[in-house]
Automatic annotation (TrEMBL):
InterPro entries: Gfo/Idh/MocA-like_OxRdtase_C, Gfo/Idh/MocA-like_OxRdtase_N, Gfo/Idh/MocA_Oxidoreductases, NAD(P)-bd_dom_sf. It comes from Pontibacter korlensis. Residues 144-416 form the Gfo/Idh/MocA-like oxidoreductase C-terminal domain. It holds the Pfam family GFO_IDH_MocA. This is Oxidoreductase. It comes from the Bacteria. Residues 14-131 form the Gfo/Idh/MocA-like oxidoreductase N-terminal domain. GO terms for molecular function: nucleotide binding.
Length: 424
């Protein structure tokens, strides 16, 4: 149960990029609930912008996460929104020093590191909330509630689809920070551990085995069009007609500019964007990157009681927004993250729902269907009351979907069905 707070929970943000900014914005919107009192961010522009927004004193502005832990504990919680490869060590250190933790997904790049964090959480008695934000989105909350109430009888199988959208794929997993799985995490974890988690959460039974297929088919050097160049700004002869043109995406259409660190003066934006396209990966040809992430990925999962699920992650769509079909013994359910349609075989009636939170206006623009800030609201309450049961995505709850992801990668690479073992 949520309670009024006598004072806001305090937190230090490690990583002031896109995700760190989203969680920090909750504090800006609800200062009576959360106060950001420190930040660690190596990018001077982001460090300064974040510090000014949250009025963080200079003594609590750090270039690296290591510097935070050289100080005695000075907040209630740590928000870890660093790159994937920098989740494990700061999380372990935060727990050791007595901080509660909000941990961006994926938990860590390896199965053993995920298990180590779980063990350290139990050892220290601290709270670790994993940012499986879809569990907090009103749409998925309603889906789980209806299933648990028997709206479609017993769940027999699930089909879940994540259309990444072709330009999002190019931005994040071909040019962007997650283009190389060895330096970050495999795309099934980096992008889709949300989806594995939701499938498991809705079915609410242990997963047993998994099979996966998929590869990098299109974004390869041999598919580069004739006349293309190393960068979209190098006089590429097909740039104007290429659907993945960086000039069109970032400069002309002004999309996904949060990676560009643009100055406040909008008159300089065009110049800065073009400079970034000439000097960073965001301006490089999508066919000539050092990317290795699959651009299509399918998995089949066996759960207890003979429940099955299939999941498909696809780069080549013109749209985004997850789609789900759930087949039950007494009905079925179809949804697209906006509307849920439940059909009852017994009555032949169809029920259409558009799930929203009671106070949706406060949270709807936070991302992931309102899930980002609804997670923050629950995390603040869990820390304030020292009650992890107020969260649905504690590390105990969230680790299984990560192990599913690691086993999916093993299956994909070894071409065999892999068991999912929660104990080692």
């Amino acid at each position: 149960m949520h309670k009024p707070l006598g004072k806001p929970v305090t937190a230090i943000t490690l990583g002031a990029g896109s995700r760190g900014t989203v969680y920090g914005n909750f504090a800006a919107k609800f200062p009576d609930q959360l106060k950001i009192v420190g930040v660690a961010e190596p990018n001077p522009y982001r460090n300064s912008k974040y510090s000014e927004k949250h009025q963080i004193p200079k003594k609590h502005r750090f270039d690296t996460w290591e510097q935070v832990f050289k100080r005695p504990k000075f907040a209630d919680a740590i928000i870890i929104s660093t790159p994937d490869a920098l989740h494990y060590t700061p999380c372990m250190k935060a727990l050791e020093m007595g901080y509660d933790v909000l941990l961006e997904k994926p938990i860590a790049p390896t199965e053993q590191e995920c298990r180590d964090i779980l063990e350290m959480t139990k050892k220290t008695g601290r709270i670790v909330a994993v940012c499986h934000v879809l569990r907090y989105a009103p749409y998925f909350v309603k889906m789980k509630e209806l299933i648990s109430q028997g709206a479609i009888g017993e769940v027999v199988s699930v089909q879940h689809f994540e259309p990444i959208e072709h330009l999002h794929m190019a931005h994040s997993y071909v040019r962007g920070n997650w283009h190389n799985s060895k330096e970050t995490t495999p795309i099934i974890l980096a992008k889709s551990c949300h989806d594995l988690d939701i499938i498991k959460w809705v079915i609410n039974k242990p997963s047993q085995r998994i099979a996966a297929m998929g590869d990098l088919k299109w974004f390869r050097k041999e598919n580069a069009p004739e006349g293309s160049t190393a960068r979209c700004t190098d006089g590429c002869k097909v740039e104007r007609e290429c659907p993945y043109s960086a000039v069109r995406h970032y400069h002309d259409d002004r999309k996904r500019l949060y990676v560009m660190d643009l100055p406040e003066d909008k008159s300089k934006h065009s110049e800065v964007i073009m400079d970034r396209l000439k000097t960073t990966n965001y301006g490089r040809c999508v066919y000539r990157m050092e990317n290795d992430q699959p651009d299509h990925y399918v998995t089949t999962i066996q759960f207890a009681d003979n429940v099955t699920a299939s999941f498909s992650m696809e780069a080549f769509t013109s749209y985004h927004g997850r789609r789900t079909r759930i087949m039950g013994s007494m009905g079925d359910m179809v949804g697209d993250m906006d509307e849920l349609v439940v059909t009852d075989f017994r009555t032949k009636k169809e029920l259409k729902l558009v799930p929203k939170a009671e106070d949706v206006e406060n949270y709807k623009n936070s991302g992931h269907g309102g899930g980002d800030w609804l997670l923050m609201r629950d995390f603040v309450q869990a820390v304030a009351q020292q009650d992890p049961s107020l969260l649905t995505s504690t590390i105990d709850e969230s680790i299984e979907s990560h192990i599913m992801g690691f086993m999916a990668e093993e299956s994909r690479k070894q071409n065999k069905i892999m068991p999912i073992r929660m104990t080692v």
